Amino acid sequence: MPLINLIVTLVVVGVLLWLVNTYIPMDRKIKSILNAVIVIAVILWLLSVFGVLGNMTGIRVGG
């Protein structure tokens, strides 16, 4: 993946998270959980992009 695509994706995710945190009324606890889930997902995606985590196609959620 080219570096510019990586940067654009991170900026878009950051702006979307900021918009959700700013304009959607939610409880503070729900916002913190949402932020944590998004940050963990972005970190896992970055590790996968850089080849540290390997291929994540074998990961299944649920049954």
Question: How would you characterize this protein structure?
Answer:
The protein has about 60 residues and is mainly α. It has helices spanning about 5-25, 30-50. The model has no long low-confidence stretch (mean pLDDT about 85).
Q: What is the strand and helix layout of this fold?
A:
Blueprint: H1 3-23, H2 28-49
Q: Could you spell the SSE succession in H and E letters?
A: HH
β-sheet strand percentage: under 5%
- Gyration radius, in Å: 14 Å
Largest sheet data: none
Number of helices: 2
SS class: mainly alpha
Q: What overall form do the CA principal axes indicate?
A: flat
For the secondary structure, the number of strands is 0
How would you state the average pLDDT, rounded?
A: 87
Low-confidence spans: none
Quaternary structure: single chain
Query: What is the first-to-last residue Cα distance?
Result: 31 Å
Fraction of residues in helices?
A: 55-70%
